[in-house]
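Response to reviewer comment R2.3. The reviewers asked that we include at least one raw input/output pair. We reproduce the pair for Histidine--tRNA ligase here without editing.
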Amino acid sequence: MTDSTSDTPSEFRPEARSPRGFADKRASQIALERRLVETVTKVYEDFGFEALQTPAFEYADALGKFLPDSDRPNVGVFALQDDDDQWMALRYDLTAPLARFAAQNWDGLPKPFRRYAFGPVYRNEKPGPGRLREFIQCDADTVGTDRPEADAEIIALAVAGFKAAGVPALLRINNRKLLNGLLTSLGVTGPDQQMAVLRAIDKLDRLGVPGVELLLGKGRKDDSGDFTKGAGLADTAIRPVLDFVMAAEGGAARSLVLQRLGHVLANFPEGQAGLEDLTRIDTALTALGVSDSAAVFEPSIVRGLEYYTGAVFEAELLLETRDEKGEMVRFGSVGGGGRYDDLVARFTGERVPATGFSFGVSRLAAALRLVEGDKANAARGPIVIINFSESDMGAYFQLAAEIRAAGLAAEVYLGRSGMKAQMKYADRRLSPAAVMIGGDELNNGTVTIKDLDLGRDLALQISDNKAWREGRPGQVTLPRAEAINHLKSIVKND
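Raw output as returned:
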């Protein structure tokens, strides 16, 4: 195809667009996510966990969770075939790579092996609001001990991480052994029926006890007339399940939940192991100073129970978040984890106990941006040196080097705009100060510095335009030798 006005082929111009489920990040978002990661990893290190970095790609058969029964394993993960015909995929979490690393290096690792990791993970799933295909996680895991106290320490670590980040969150804790023991004792052993029970319990917040009761039985018809088939439990089995999930009713303290569960499971011996685990977790949490307001036992938490083998925990964000339209936004879980004793066994054939927690850094950052606003998390720009003359560029760069050597960020304006536009540029960069060394300053050995934040604040107090021009709020001229200290004082007061 040729251009109608030329004999040369028309130039292809791709549409400028980002892939669905992948987001561009500017300085403010990067700074917020970096702050969260640095804060949380400092807590991990204080608890004695060591850093580990694994590659973004793993062999697809090492991931396991998302692999379909097909010749092209790219459902759930982003996969490609290497030149040796082996399939590789971008990691979908940081736990599967840990399991591979532990199996590969087990003989040389200290045991238990305590590691933390952070970085982007990738999900080949349908994107949606608050649901990206690339996001950042920050994990801590202990591999090689089956002690419930290891679970308690992971929970305490998560609580400390949220506290250090200044984020109000509540850890909800359950144990797969409890429900497994209850259902087995009730004769509910089929995986399909067990999953139907889990799905029913998961709707407790939305449907309440009456709705869950219907879904545990024959089924429920909603307001639109649509019918959802139930788990098909007998009436004699429904009551114990409801008593079980309601053990935390009324915001009960951990000790009271344990008492209630003890009554529910009194005639179901297989659930006693899970109850013993929770009791030991409670003892350790109390010793670690983790209160009932920070971590609670919640038997209705069932997400992930098909994956975890024991304790499971989920972090709920205790922030009222609203979007730009003022409508409530539910972010759901901003972190979670639990005990997974079967993952390493995929490689070795031997069960290796493990437990861990993952902070959803990207989701947490998105929630904080809604609550605090972009301005609260805005990244400060550098000190900007105004460019007056081509012939004085050497002097500008020399001053920039001096400022940087003093530990402050600085840049020389390298566009071709005038003074007014340069000041607007510095303002948009949220620069703490603009520095001017024009002809007068160079001749007199002085520097003119404008404190941009102070100037904005003072300008708000001046109603007369002439007074503003003459007063030049926030602007001072001082000897060159005093410039660095003055700039440090401005940056320090940010």
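The chain is about 40% helix and 20% strand. Residues 27-56+91-188+233-372 form a domain with the BirA Bifunctional Protein; domain 2 fold (CATH 3.30.930.10). Further pairs are available on request from the corresponding author.
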